[in-house]
């Protein structure tokens, strides 16, 4: 009999494949909408092992929040919270309805008060490209345009950590531990290069599947490998 393939093995949830969340800090969030103060103080900027961008610890009205640090932010800086003004600084938290068109933003809320949901990766940014009466149009890093509620909030600037990909890994071990910190499996090996006991396509020391590549209808979760219920196969 064969072994369970890697997706099935990961789904068991043991420590081998479990995310090292005990090393993570608090989740990123924004101050409450009913916060009485209009400013927040940047207490510290820290490294988060599970994220691609540094985190900034801000304090407002005695409440501490973790946010994605933008480029140009420093310790002891003061950021504004939902306050309309002419010139914004990196990290200012502003309603989408108050942000001028063409401004670089990140950490966009999906719903008013839900916290940062879009554009959180290091070096990423979105751009506000249009305003209408009941919606704000934003161009995401993927160049896709999405509409948001004007009451949603976003941070001004570009997420820090954009240069992390410019430094080469140099060793496979560095890449392995970088992926492991974020609970990513690496390296990823194709099924045809595995042994016969490890994958349905493994064995025979070649790229030949040895069987049909269409997954059967009643295959268990994780074993649906190859073509999943294709309309047709082969040449026309």
Structural account:
It is a single chain. It contains two helices and twelve strands; from the N terminus they run αββββββββββββα. The chain has 236 residues and is mainly β. It is elongated, with a radius of gyration of 23 Å. The two termini are 36 Å apart.
Annotation field: number of helices: 2
- From the spread of the alpha carbons, the general shape counts as elongated
How many beta-strand runs? 12
Question: Mean pLDDT, nearest integer?
Answer: 90
Q: Termini distance?
A: 36 Å
The helicity comes to: under 10%
Strand order of the largest sheet: 5-12-6-9-10-11
Q: Could you list the spans in which at least 5 consecutive residues all have pLDDT below 50?
A: none
CATH class of the domain at 21-164: Mainly Beta
Main sheet record: 6 strands, antiparallel
Structural class comes to mainly beta
- Report the CATH topology name of the domain at 21-164: SH3 type barrels
- For the record, the CATH architecture of the domain at 21-164 stands as Roll
| Helix/strand order, N-terminal first | HEEEEEEEEEEEEH
């Amino acid at each position: 009999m064969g072994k369970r393939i890697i997706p099935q093995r990961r789904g068991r949830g043991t420590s081998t494949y479990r995310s090292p969340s005990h090393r993570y800090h608090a989740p990123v969030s924004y101050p409450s909408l009913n916060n009485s103060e209009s400013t927040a103080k940047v207490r510290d900027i820290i490294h988060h092992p599970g994220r691609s961008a540094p985190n900034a610890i801000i304090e407002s009205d005695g409440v501490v929040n973790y946010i994605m640090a933008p480029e140009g932010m420093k310790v002891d800086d003061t950021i504004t919270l939902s306050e309309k003004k002419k010139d914004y600084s990196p990290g200012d938290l502003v309603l989408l309805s108050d942000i001028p068109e063409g401004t670089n933003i990140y950490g966009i809320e999906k719903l008013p008060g839900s916290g940062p949901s879009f554009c959180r990766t290091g070096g990423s940014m979105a751009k506000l490209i249009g305003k209408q009466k009941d919606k704000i149009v934003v161009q995401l890093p993927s160049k896709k345009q999405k509409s948001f509620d004007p009451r949603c909030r976003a941070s001004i600037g570009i997420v820090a950590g954009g240069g992390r990909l410019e430094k080469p890994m140099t060793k496979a071990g560095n890449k392995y531990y970088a992926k492991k910190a974020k609970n990513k499996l690496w390296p990823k090996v194709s099924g045809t290069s595995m042994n016969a006991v490890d994958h349905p396509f493994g064995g025979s020391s070649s790229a030949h599947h040895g069987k049909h590549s269409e997954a059967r209808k009643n295959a268990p979760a994780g074993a649906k490998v190859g073509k999943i219920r294709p309309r047709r196969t082969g040449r026309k």
